[in-house]
Amino acid sequence: MFITEFKVNKMRKLWEKADTIRGLLAQPDGIDIDEHFIATYYVETTSPQPVEYAEGMAVEQTTGTWTPVPEETPEVREKHAGKVVALVKIPRAPTSWVVQIAFPMENIDPNMNLFNSTLMGNISWWGIGMRDYALKLTDLQIPKEWMKQFKGPKFGVPGIRKLLNIPKRNILNNMIKPCTGIPTSVIAKLFEGAAMGGVDIIKDDELIADPPFAPFFDRLAKCMEIVDKKRSETGEYTLYTINVTDRTDKLLEKAEKAVQAGANALMLDSGAGLEALRMLAEDPSIKVPILYHNCYAGTQVASEFGGMTAHVHQKLVRLCGGDISLQPDYMGKFPTDRTQCLLSVNTCLLPLQHLKPVLCLIGGGVHPGLVPHIIEEYGLDVLIGAGGAVHGHPMGPIAGGKALRQAIDACVEGIPLTEYAETHGELKAALEKWGYPASELEAKKIFDLAGGQRA
Fold first, then answer.
1. pTM for the full model?
2. Domain 2-143 maps to which CATH number in 3.40.50.150, 3.30.1330.10, 3.30.70.150, 3.90.1640.10?
3. Catalytic residue among 177, 254, 315, 402
4. What is the pLDDT of residues 232-255, one digit of tens each?
5. pLDDT score of 403
6. Which residues, 6+ apart, have CB-to-CB distance to 58 below 8 Å?
7. Catalytic residue among 230, 254, 293, 402
8. How do 83-89 and 134-141 pair as beta strands?
9. What's the CATH code, domain 156-448?
10. CA nearest 209: which of 266, 274, 124, 152?
11. Active-site residue 177, yes or no?
């Protein structure tokens, strides 16, 4: 009871200053969209004053605080305060609202750190911080002039296709498994199996960077030797996205040294942050693609009650220069949904001002039986990512790579997987082990930890 009363009293303090913050409402067509960000939020609140609640969001993230202060003049509010441009009650959901706020572009320097603080700063505590509330950034329009200050991906989909000489089919990615704890010699063996099996891009797991059992530059040298060997023997090229994640003050130097040592691609964990990605992507010395691994982004996008939607995050990754960006598939081992996946892929691929399209990596429990579903849902311009399905194949990683390539080829040629498997033993073995699921429920069964499976 005390906690509920405390929350209500805290919000009342905000409502009591309503008379001092009038002017925080605006018509959508009364706002210059070239000078404002338009942020859309999903809000759940038991507040009896939703207008004041929305105004409180706008002022908290711009000019004001919990009580009037002398220098927050009408002139300051007029020029710099956020404006509520839409407040829509969701039918049959008495505590749920859509709120749109216009934020003046002049307030926000062209950097992601300040951007995040403005659009999802203190008010984020109103969502996940208060259990009977929700506040989530669901969509975002960015002014063209602000967006022009970001260069975006150097390569993107067209650049990576050109590097690999793969003009049409889906590109195939593998994650080395086990995730961590194995020495360079084992990593190299697994890398060679995946590469010789036909995998186009091989990435470090996000949990390994520069451990003593697999030092960074030793790992790079051994794996790039295999890249050269595969190219000379088969004519196919492989990108190795080695994980350069490090302290921010060491990151650029490490990436530059990696490129000088022969790295043909890099990977950065999202825990490093979007501005770290931008630093690498916009530096002229980094002339290779960058895979941005959204592992830590789950803390920002997974909750229904706070943070931002996955497709808003993908837009920011594209702004900051990620050539490849991860989106777990809803048929895989993570609790995502179809709408989220489709919106994320579209955000990566659809035209967005001057920014190249991002190669969206669809992963998280992918195996050959899911390939038709992935291609049907997302098309040919997504990266099919599989870890355990390569290294856990009953015939070994070479066969694991071949099985996935065979599944891609079957789909491109329009041949059912079961029919194609009759003449392709690697694919047949994979389907026998992991199945050919016809529904999301079927697909999820193999990831049931309680049933003894290990994703």
1. 0.92
2. 3.30.70.150
3. 177
4. 999 999 999 999 999 999 999 999
5. 98
6. 24, 81, 82, 83, 84, 101
7. 293
8. unpaired
9. 3.20.20.110
10. 266
11. yes
